[in-house]
Fold:
Amino acid sequence: MRDEKRNFTIPFYALLIGAWYTALQITFPAFSSAQPPEFSIQSITNQPSASSSGMLSDQPKSRTFLRVAEGKASYYSNQFHGRRTANGETFDMNELTAAHPSLPFGTWVRVINLRNGKDVVVRINDRGPFVRGRIIDLSAGAAKRIGLFKSGTANVRIEPVKHSPEDPMAG
Structure:
């Protein structure tokens, strides 16, 4: 009898976690009145997409656009340091990376702390945050750069970046 109960609880909790995750999908708040130019994720990541035949194509399957968004940011650090991120990398809390609920992995975004004006460019390599009302989770290294490490959260603006900060062709 005890084994039958255990076999039932695992799928039940998996279903419960799935429902919880779906309910917490975060949407961007209203965009500012001055509409920034639209950037396609394809041009931001500079990665070709794979077609259904497996061949790489210069045309993305769907056009996803990133605009400026504002909301609350937080950071995550030592409890996840050394673990795998959603894209398979090993999380390093000192790198300039972030977790976002929907942006493609490899997307570069500028995160600006609205309280002090400090900014940092981060690469999306994980999924999250899983707290209602937050739009991005930063690594500890990124949080220190914009001054939200001590407070834990801050109101931020997320802006698209066409190239990585290390790209010599970025202008």
Notes: Residues 2-23 form the longest helix (22 residues). Residues 39-160 form a domain with the Barwin-like endoglucanases fold (CATH 2.40.40.10). The helical segments are 2-23, 41-45, 140-146.
